[in-house]
Amino acid sequence: MSSKKYASPLQLELKPSRLLFSIVLALHTIALLMIYLLPVNSLLKLFTALLVISTFMYFVYYQAFRKSAKAIIKVIWDASDEWFLVTRSGEQMPANLVGDSFSHPRLAVLNFKIPEHFFQKRVVLLRDNVDENLFRRLRVRLKISSHHQTDEF
User: Fold this and answer.
1) Radius of gyration from C-alpha coordinates of the chain
2) Does residue 151 have a pLDDT over 80?
3) Dihedrals phi, psi of 62, to nearest 5 degrees
4) pLDDT at residue 131 tops 90
5) What is the mean pLDDT of residues 73-87?
6) What H or E segment, with its residue span, contains residue 43?
7) Which long-range contacts (CB under 8 A, 24 or more apart) does 17-21 make?
8) Who's near 103: CB < 8 A, 6+ residues apart?
9) What pLDDT score does 134 carry?
10) Per-residue pLDDT averaged across 107-120, rounded?
11) Are the CB atoms for 85 and 95 separated by under 8 Å?
12) CA 64 to CA 66: how far, in whole Å?
């Protein structure tokens, strides 16, 4: 980045999200209804329904309510353009924001690559799980940052 005027550190404390829970519940309920309507045998329906229920439980525990020890509860973007993720267990990990992240006035999905991990970490931000002013500042900073970097975000 060429300008550091806007680059004051951001520390987003993530709270549980009832809105995210509601959205995920609605989507998984629709998926279960679609499974019920499929013209396949009952055993396959049962297996698929169990998969949908298990992904619902995992997503709610990990993303919506952030109860898992590995759930990310804080996102830090410091003035030197470094990202850090803090888990409920207290682990702080350096991270790199991946270019396929998404930012919108009501929703942001930040995808991070952790150097020691194979899978990406995703952080879902909605208006009820993060401070509104910090969320706005994050979006502005992401937009400014994307104009200075051609390969990322």
Assistant:
1) 18
2) no
3) -90, -45
4) yes
5) 94
6) helix 42-59
7) 17/63, 17/64, 17/65, 17/124, 17/126, 17/128, 17/129, 18/64, 18/128, 19/126, 19/127, 19/128, 19/129, 20/63, 20/64, 20/124, 20/126, 20/128, 20/129, 21/60, 21/64, 21/65
8) 138, 139, 142, 143, 153
9) 94
10) 92
11) yes
12) 6
Residue 150 has pLDDT above 80, yes or no: no
Query: Would you call 77 exposed, middle or buried from its count of C-beta atoms within 10 A (0-12, 13-18, 19+)?
Result: buried
The model's pLDDT over 37-65, given as tens digits with 9 standing for 90+, comes to 999 999 999 999 999 999 999 999 999 99
Give the distance from CA 111 to its chain's centroid.
7
Which residue in the block uniquely carries the two structure tokens 């900073």?
141
Q: Token pair for residue 14?
A: 């993530």
Closest-CA residue to 93 (of 66, 126, 70): 70
Strand intervals (E) in the chain = 10-13, 72-77, 83-87, 92-97, 102-103, 107-113, 121-126
pLDDT given for residue 87 in this prediction: 96
Q: How far apart are the first and last CA of the chain?
A: 13
